[in-house]
Structures are given as C-alpha cells and as structure tokens.
C-alpha cells in the first residue's frame, strides 16, 4: 500500500505529516513510525502527525514522538498541522481542532505565520533553581549562563531521567535572558531524547515561567531558538495564564510516498 507523506518544519522542529482521514495508516506500528523518523534509516523527523476527521469538518491531530510512541501536545507540530490542513484545502485561514491536550484554535497572520492558541496554565511550581509547568506537555525551565556552549544533551537527559520526574520524565528547557522580554532557549525533548532546534510547548512554558519570575514584564515574549524566533502572548490574571498564543512559521519541505506491507 502506498501512503503519501509530507514533511514540514516549524523553526527547525520537523515532522512527517499524513492525511489519515481514511484511517488507513497503521497506528500501532510503533517500530515502523520510529524508523520513519530516524535520521539515518528513515525520512528523518522529530515526530509524526496524523490528520484525522472525527466528524464532518472536525479534525484531530494525532502526534507520535520520534521514538514511535504517542505523545502529548506539540506546539510547533500543531502549527505544521494547520499549514497541512490548508494545503489539503480543508480550511482557509483559521481552524479548530482537537489535540492530545484538548481543543485548539489557530489562524494565519497577515505575514503568513500561524498563531496557535495553547492551553491555559495555572499550576506553576516555582523552585529555587527551576520552574515546572505543563503547557500541553510537561516542562522543566531552568536559567543558565552562556547558553550557546551549555551541555544541553548531557544535563537535559540527567534531569529528564532524574528523580524529579520519575518514569514519565519531562522536557527540559535551558534559558538565558537576551534583553527585556526576549530570551534564548535550548530544549531537550523527551521522546526525541535529544536537543531539538525548537520546541513550541517549551517556549510557551519559558515565556510563562519568565513572566511568573518577573523577568518578563510584557504580555508578549520573544523566544530565540536555534531554529528561529517564536512569540508567545498571554493574558495573566491572579496567576492564571489565559489566551496563550504561540506564533511562528510552519513551512513545507518535501513530499513522497511510504510503502506499507500490511
């Protein structure tokens, strides 16, 4: 069976996208999904996303990490999902869809970027040297110096697998202030088990954490990742962050066909 696939990326965070409205994709073939995402033996991606239709005009994003396992919300993947839906002619300039963490809304900006509404956040655990919060996926946020040379993989994996988060683990973000309301971010992602060029739920967590720590004073924060710039805006009221919007690009890379022998 031939299955068309499409490759997209959002600030370097790259994904394989498939139109699975006909429900033909083998969703339990976890080893095959991991192989497809492998950088040397497959297409190469940080994750794989299925576009499904749960009722006429109502869409669901199904997300797998590059290890082949179903995972929680992916912000960059969500923007790529919306760009893919537009490519398929399913939407015009805005979209409602379901994702692992619930309902989302997205729309294209006047510059062609995608503004994606993320979940509201209220439970923010502030510790002496890190902040923990869930923005659709769990995130550890830690301030460091000299981020450009910081050992992200070594220290990120130690925290991800450490005693703080048990077997479930957490994504780990290392942050350095650049200027007022602008922060540089590097992220170690669970499920990828490596640093990625960008993480959408990660920069969302960083923006909220920096505001919580009063290191960001505006309700729009710029995040500089190795893959490019993203913006997170929000409304904050008595510690609850609502109308959280992640804005950035989503770009088509190439398309091809998969061979599946069922």
Could you characterize what this model shows?
By secondary structure, the chain is α+β, with helices and mostly antiparallel strands. The chain has helices spanning 30-37, 75-87, 152-160, 200-212, and strands at residues 2-10, 13-19, 47-55, 58-65, 94-99, 102-108, 114-117, 124-126, 131-134, 138-143, 171-179, 182-189, 194-196, 220-225, 228-237, 240-248, 251-259. It has a 17-stranded mixed β-sheet that branches. Strand 3 (47-55) and strand 4 (58-65) form a beta hairpin. The longest helix is centred in the N-terminal third of the chain and has 13 residues, at 75-87. It starts with a strand and ends with a strand. The mean pLDDT is 96.
Distance between the termini: 8 Å
If you compute it from the alpha carbons, what radius of gyration comes out, rounded to the nearest whole angstrom? Answer: 18 Å
Q: What is the number of beta strands?
A: 17
What is the helix tally? 4
Major sheet summary line: 17 strands, mixed
Instruction: Indicate the percent of residues in helices.
Output: 10-25%
* Rounded mean pLDDT score: 96
Q: Name the overall outline.
A: globular
Name the poorly predicted regions.
none
Tell me the strand percentage band. Answer: 35-45%
Order of helices and strands: EEHEEHEEEEEEHEEEHEEEE
SS class: alpha+beta
List keywords for this structure.
globular, 17 strands, alpha+beta, single chain, 4 helices, 262 residues, 16% helix, 17-stranded mixed beta sheet
């Amino acid at each position: 069976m031939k299955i068309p696939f499409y490759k997209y990326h959002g600030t370097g965070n790259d994904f394989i996208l498939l139109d699975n409205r006909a429900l033909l994709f083998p969703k339990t073939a976890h080893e095959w999904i991991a192989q497809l995402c492998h950088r040397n033996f497959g297409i190469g991606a940080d994750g794989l996303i299925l576009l499904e239709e749960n009722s006429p005009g109502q869409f669901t994003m199904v997300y797998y990490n590059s290890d082949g396992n179903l995972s929680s919300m992916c912000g960059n993947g969500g923007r790529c999902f919306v760009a893919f839906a537009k490519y398929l002619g399913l939407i015009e300039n805005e979209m409602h869809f379901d994702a692992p963490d619930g309902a989302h809304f997205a729309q294209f900006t006047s510059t062609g970027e995608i503004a994606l509404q993320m979940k509201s956040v209220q439970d923010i655990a502030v510790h002496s040297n890190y902040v923990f919060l869930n923005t659709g996926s769990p995130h550890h946020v830690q301030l460091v110096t000299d981020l450009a040379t910081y050992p992200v993989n070594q220290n990120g994996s130690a925290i991800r697998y450490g005693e703080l988060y048990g077997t479930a683990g957490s994504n780990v973000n290392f942050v350095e202030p650049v200027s007022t309301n602008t922060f540089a971010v590097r992220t170690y992602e669970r499920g990828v088990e490596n640093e990625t060029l960008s993480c959408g739920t990660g920069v969302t967590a960083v923006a909220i954490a920096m505001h919580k720590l009063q290191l960001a004073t505006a309700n729009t924060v710029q995040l500089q990742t190795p893959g490019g710039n993203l913006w997170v805006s929000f409304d904050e009221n008595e510690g609850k962050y609502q109308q959280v919007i992640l804005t950035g690009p989503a770009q088509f890379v190439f398309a091809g066909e998969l061979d599946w022998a069922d």
